[in-house]
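Regression check, s-citryldethia Coenzyme A case 385:
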Amino acid sequence: MTENEIRKGLAGVVVDTTAVSKVNPETNSLLYRGYPVQELAATQPFEAVAHLLWSGELPSPEQLAELRRIEREHRALPDNVRAAIDLLPLEAHPMDEVRTAVSVIGASDTAGGGSVLDASGSPEENLARSIRLYAALPAIVAYGQRRRRALDPVEPRDDLDYSANFLWMTFGEEPDPVVVDAFNRSMILYAEHSFNASTFTARVVTSTLSDLYSAVVAAIGALKGPLHGGANEAVMHIFDEIGSAENVVPWLEAALAEKRKIMGFGHRVYKKGDSRVPTMKAALDTLVEHYDRPDVAALYTALEHEFVSRKGIYPNLDYPSGPAYNLIGFDTLTFTPLFIASRVTGWTAHIMEQAGSNALIRPLSAYNGPDERHVEGYVASAEER
Ligand code: SDX
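Current build output:
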């Protein structure tokens, strides 16, 4: 193995097949089980896209009704999860809160028999676990934001579908259809993106025949990083630093002089722009109009123009998502937990696909440490010689 055969970060390395989604940087396109994500975002409720990712097909009306029935059964914040979150300091990062909550749900699911030999679970058990996590995450994320604001939790409402109920539990106000539609689109756009770092993490854990919950907890840890899911939170911190469009040029010139990475721009796979950005930008535009915030649009456009013209690096999905979630009223620290609530559908689709392949993921490494040497005075025994 020579150093130049090493592909750091697995950049450009195809490690397996997947039927869940296709990311094509040449055509700047993204297909979920063959459907262009733009078409799904424009026509489907998030529940239907979850079904598509898990089963491979869009649901019939009966299948959608059944998924909605099961989702409603598992929307309420489990008492032991609330108790676990309440043990955490208010200053705990919400990503750590959600990671803890998923751990509690996993540890409480003793149906798996407890033995590591039963951990991986059957396809039916894992689909049920996937739906339960997808159903519980809105309550977990909403509770975290309300707890930090010293507000009581809001009970879910059965008369509201997934996205509207998510907003209801977070803000305790009747959700506006314009906001529900923009939020629903963001959940669809964030749901799946082939072997990104957090999804691949989930697949590595699953490849050892470990359980779905352990794989999701590991994926949450990977998603938290600002080079990955944490970027949507980081974008908002940048917007707050800049303040208004007039400050973009001096701020950017100072940031680039400090060699800072400008969060929300760039992508390991897309090099001519992220296929999801136009759809999310359109959703942001509806929110800018709905909340009458042309200042947000001006800052967004100015920073994009100045950075792209200087670096030729384009926005990724996190760039329009950050200001969109801010306009809706989510705390900046809640942004990446929203990414979890959406991506749990893609992660679990990949976990179930990996579980079916039964192939341990274990790459090689090229050693570049000290040559072999021995402990001073050590004399190997006769057996060891
Ligand atoms: C997500 O993989 C996925 O699909 C992820 C995701 C998903 O849906 O799961 O799409 C979600 O994670 C989107 C990405 C969110 N991250 C950010 O916005 C963080 C900022 N972006 C960069 O850190 C960077 O663009 C990466 C990490 C996303 C991708 O970088 P690469 O492909 O590993 O390339 P690189 O970091 O080596 O950058 C190449 C050059 C470097 O310059 P040099 O050091 O060679 O001189 O471009 C520069 C980088 O410094 N560069 C940037 C930059 N992105 C790249 N410089 C400043 N700001 C940036 N944002």
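Comparison notes: DSSP finds 16 helices and three strands in the chain. The beta strands are 21-24, 29-32, 35-36. No diff flagged against the previous build.
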